[in-house]
Automatic annotation (TrEMBL), chains A, B:
The keyword Magnesium applies. Its cofactor is Mg(2+). It comes from Nitrospirillum iridis. It comes from the Bacteria. Signal peptide: none annotated. This is ADP-ribose pyrophosphatase YjhB (NUDIX family). One of its GO terms (molecular function) is hydrolase activity. Pfam families: NUDIX (PF00293), Zn_ribbon_Nudix (PF14803). PANTHER family: NUDIX HYDROLASE 23, NUDIX HYDROLASE 23, CHLOROPLASTIC. Residues 36-159 form the Nudix hydrolase domain. The lineage of its organism: Bacteria, Pseudomonadati, Pseudomonadota, Alphaproteobacteria, Rhodospirillales. The keyword Cell membrane does not apply. Keywords: Hydrolase, Magnesium. Belongs to the Nudix hydrolase family.
Length: 181, 181
């Protein structure tokens, strides 16, 4: 499960002068990598009642279904990032709505911001990271072929809040289920 | 406002082989810095009706008042990070509650997660990054001496939601005010 030790770049764990915690430092050029948690942005994207899912064409979990989501990039907002990912992975144009969930995966130092969204056009097409993309009715969701636990969590949180959402009422975003941390 | 060009470490902007966007690469050792947006975690921390603020002892904005907040670290959750920052900056022990705001500052690639929190003990004491810490009644908040626009935003969002919060009712976290992006 652990990556091999790199042979170039920051690879020595040490506490830099004047700091209070260990960082990865490059012994060749002295560069200090201020590694920090990464933000994943994604969406439950609806077309009518149906939900957009993407079958992964890249590791990890090739062939399994996931929400359109990926790492937030520099210079964009979290909402713009969620829309960009749906475009890149599924050729889908989204209107981003309220925040549905904030998941913490501290084991891999990841924070996931999952928005509720609507497709502004029914057209979808797989991008290079997807084998296939499809709009699923709730009863057709491939529960046993989902790529990650947080996909399952987000889908169920959406279902739990569906009446509030349809009534346009405010709701607090979900956090990790107790057994998910 | 811009930093000087570094003379070691990743400092050449180029598109690495097989990628679709520019990254910072070190010309000495080939290390690619996958720089990504940073997460700031903080809180509106209440003791009764009063709100914890910290007078900054470090740049930027030395001497101005801010919420207890800082960069999320590896291996922690966003809630743990918000509690850690209040402990480090104000010697305050917090119980973290619902998410009050998610602010995007794309100009500096920052996402701020601001929680509502309660002090579990009234004791506070300035940490190394604070000149002074204090609990302010709403009418005593030093509005003209706040360090950052998002401190002002978060305080006003709290005030807007105070009745919902006191009634224990769910609310959607705030996003940037329209004129704040
Ligand atoms: Zn190096
Ligand atoms: Zn180097």
């Amino acid at each position: 499960m652990s990556d091999p030790v790199p042979t170039t770049g920051p690879r020595v764990v040490t506490v830099p002068p004047g700091e209070d915690r260990e960082r990865l430092v490059c012994p060749d050029c002295g560069y200090i990598a201020y590694d920090n948690p990464k933000i994943v942005v994604g969406s439950i994207a609806l077309s009518g009642d149906r939900i957009l899912l993407c079958r992964r064409a890249i590791p990890p979990r090739i062939g399994y279904w996931t929400l359109p989501a990926g790492f937030m990039e520099l210079g964009e907002t979290s909402q713009d990032g969620a829309a960009r990912e749906a475009w890149e992975e599924a050729g889908a144009r989204l209107a981003i709505g309220p925040l549905l969930a904030v998941y913490n995966i501290p084991r891999i130092s990841q924070v996931q911001l999952i928005y509720l969204a609507h497709l502004t056009s029914p057209e979808i097409a797989p991008g290079p990271e997807s084998q296939e993309v499809a709009l699923f009715a709730w009863d057709d969701i491939p529960w046993t072929d989902l790529a990650f636990p947080s996909v399952d969590w987000a889908l169920r949180e959406y279902e739990t809040r569906r009446e509030l959402i349809q009534a346009g009422r405010p709701f607090a975003p979900a956090t990790n289920p107790v057994d998910g941390l």
